[in-house]
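User: Hello! I'm new to structural biology and keep hearing that structure can be predicted from sequence alone. Could you demonstrate with SusD/RagB family nutrient-binding outer membrane lipoprotein? Please show me the input and the output so I can see what each looks like.

Assistant: Of course. The first part below is the input, the amino acid sequence of SusD/RagB family nutrient-binding outer membrane lipoprotein. The second part is the output, the predicted structure written as tokens.
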Amino acid sequence: MRKIAYILSFIFLGAAFQSCTKNFEETNRNNNKVYSVDANDIFAGTVVRTMKLIQELNFNKLMNFSRYAVVGFATNPSQDIGDNYFSQFYVGILRDLLKLEKDYAGKPEYANRLAIVKTWKSYVFYMMASIYGSVPMSDALSVAGENKINFKYDSEQEIYTQVLNDLKNAGDLYSSSATYPNDLIQRDPVFGGATFGKSNLVKWQKFTNTLRLNVAMHVQNISMDLAREHATAVMNDDSKLISSLDEMVKLQWGSDESLSASYYYTRFIKNVTTFSEMTYPALGEYFSTYLFSYNDPRIGAYAMKANVMAPAGTRPMLYSDTLTRAHLKFCTLKDCPTFAAHQADGKNASRVDSILVEYAMPYVPLPELNSLAAGWEWAFVPGQTYRYNDPLGSKNSPYNFSFVHTDFVKENASMVLLNWADTYFLKAEAEMLFGSEGKAQLYYEQGVKASFAQYNLGGVDNYLAQNGIKWNTDGKGFADRRLLYRASIRGKGGRDNHLEQIYKQRYIADYLNCLEGWNLERRTRALRFPPFLANGGSSDVEGYNSVYNYWTERFVYPIVEQSKNTESYYNGIENLKAVSPYYRGDRWGDNVYTSLGFAKLNPDLIFAERIYGGNKIIKPNCEYFNKKYGKTYEEVVATAKSMTGETDENIALTKAFSYNFRSLLKTYIP
């Protein structure tokens, strides 16, 4: 708590030096000098403002975009035309960093501070280019004058090239020279340790180089030559990449609810009197199918079990399933409608019952807001006059779902920007593209192990032995409940399939690092999740489809840019158009569905109307829940006794998973 409070005191110091301008363009036109302080006074504030902005973006947009979690109120596409995010990037963060960079440039006594500032600035511009595409970089926060009216929107390639060069330069600047022992951040919020002490320059250099490798892989669809140049250069000395849990880029919030608590905590936990699944992020179904399919123990680190947050006595959501059981035990006058005939024919030992039961599941994903698209309908239950219901829609309480684990959202949560596993998966990807398949396999397996180590989990060898997870194998995963998507992994074969394994494992390991998850899917299209189903809902998004929408590819620019930076604004749209694999002319091209240059074309767009348009009859099937505790009643009883230690089967069944017998469907001799 002390650490983050100390950081926040410097936010206010930094704010005192900032003008009251709100808009990026207005800031550009301020001719006054902003301040004259060093990184020890101001850098910590830029870090905390970055943390807050990341979590605000995640909660309002990117959790849903990445499909890591469902935030119910934000599942319908929207376009933010205000300058809130732009201002936070430019005025709140980059303004300080660019001033510090200018002050430190060319001064050997500040080489390490310059490297740190360049690294953080590079991460912020990487974020912006990933979110908007073309943005002002070379002219960012320039001072306006009589001869300067427009502020250039640099192209994606220009931005990423500059970011990579800045990271290269920063990586080369770090030095432990005794000549300048104070050339570091005295109160470092990133690598200053638990006591908010001096910078660990070794860790900073590893962050710089790992970020460079990350950006290099990110730009391969723009320029494979650029990606190769920087990836191979960094990997020539991979001892300077993140190589342990202790070196992860992990930012820490504090425990003071009024001053230092995380954005998540203050946004949807603090002072909330009525719990709602519309505001508390919960495990998403598509992501969870990978966890269910491959028995992934990380599910317990990522999400809470269903009903864990509920008050005592709250009924869990019960899932309906069918089982078989030996009829003989249940052939009683009370339980068997044909008791007399069965007793008379001597065949009871061969008879089997098919029964309908219900029980609670340990983890229950929250469905995205609409279960069906407009024009779709649930199928009729065979032989009945009523239809199926949504299997995830039969909740008894808003607490019934598996919400994001408290470790991610509590007041003093940590927030990871790059983890140890990322390094291995990035190296595996780079080896598949530019090097050795043998090394790629080794790094892939080490990446999975590093992810398990991050959450202190065992069982990694068993996990790696499964088809689809084991290198060069295919795995057939579970489908979602509407059979729109299957969590399969095609790993057997050539380069593309090996890359699919790498991409999907990195995606799983980066849970709730939403920008990286969103970026990974856009640049690889490895996951290919279905669209969000609109079901006739309205939206302010131009180009919106009232039936289904693939999710947002970018944010739109602030509307104020049209009037205050007009020429450059429209040039920025032309930059988008020049490189976009899928350009939408809606909203004069500044559209949320226009893909960015670093992205691949979504291959499902061409088939979308055939798959999701018109009338569809949906027969639900929760493959990941079916026969969860056993295929027969006898197996389910054994599971319940094992889970609870109870010897009485009825007590064990109730205690283990709220088992309930619903009806006898039929009795037959196989």
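User: So the tokens describe the shape?

Assistant: Right, they're a compact way of writing down the 3D structure. Reading them back into a model, for example: The two ends are 66 Å apart (CA to CA).
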